[in-house]
Structure formats: C-alpha cells, structure tokens
Write a structure and sequence with these properties.
With 146 residues, the chain is an alpha+beta fold. It has 4 helices and 7 strands, in the order ββαβββαβαβα. The protein has a 3-stranded antiparallel sheet. Strands 4-5 form a two-stranded antiparallel ribbon. A two-stranded parallel sheet has the order 6-7. A hairpin with a 5-residue loop joins strand 4 (52-57) and strand 5 (63-66). The longest helix has 17 residues, at 74-90. The chain is globular, with a radius of gyration of 18 Å.
Amino acid sequence: MIRYSLVCAGRHEFEAWFGSSGAFDAQRAAGHVACPICGSLEVEKALMAPSITTGRKGSEGRAEQTSPAHGPDRKQMIEAMKKVRNQLIANADYVGDRFAEEARKIHYEEAEKRGIYGQATPEEARGLIEEGVSFAPLPVLPDDAN
C-alpha cells in the first residue's frame, strides 16, 4: 500500500491509500478519487514528507526508516478510521447506485432527511456538487480492495 498526500482544485489537502501508484492513476482517471471536503474530482498528488532515518539498525543491518504512515501509531490510526467508517455505515441507509437520486431527494426535501451511502458516477458526483448537495466519500483504507 502507498499513502499519497493529495490536493484538490479547491486547494483542500487530504491523504488517501492506494494499492500502488498505478492504482491511484486508474482510480483518478475513472473519477473515483474525490476531495472529502468539497467533492472535487480534480485531485493531484501533493508534496509528501520523506521517510526519516531513525539511526537504529533493523533486523537486516540497514538503518530503520519511518514515516507517520508507517510509524508505531499506524495500526491505531487505521483502526480508528475503520471505526469511524463503520459508524457512518451503521447509521445510514445503503442506496446502491441510486445514491445521486436519493441525495437530491433529501437535499430538496422530497424525502426524509437521513444518512445514506452508495455509489455515484463521476458525472453524477459533479452534478451533485453543482447543485450544492453535500456529500463526501467514505474513507478508503489500506486493506480495502482497489
């Protein structure tokens, strides 16, 4: 897994995990990488902090390296993100590929206000953004399938 620091056209900075550099490129090209703050699909890689040498020798005699994404708190961070995502899912209705339709109904008060989750095409997501419908993608974690 690889963690990228990302930035959207609105200059919002966020991080996301991908199976590889190619997975990021493919997901972005398919419109599956969106800013969690504004929903923009115009997302680019931002500058990233380098790994830091700790000065200790690892099991193979080489200097250990660490980064915030690979440090001792990584597992706890991922578990906390899983809890947040699971809480969101547990308290929302799954609407599948009808997400955009249901989000609009809720936004325009044609349906009961409630949490929902599902899938939307890039075009549907852009349309929701243009209409001012608030939504955000669920967090993608390192052990999620691409």
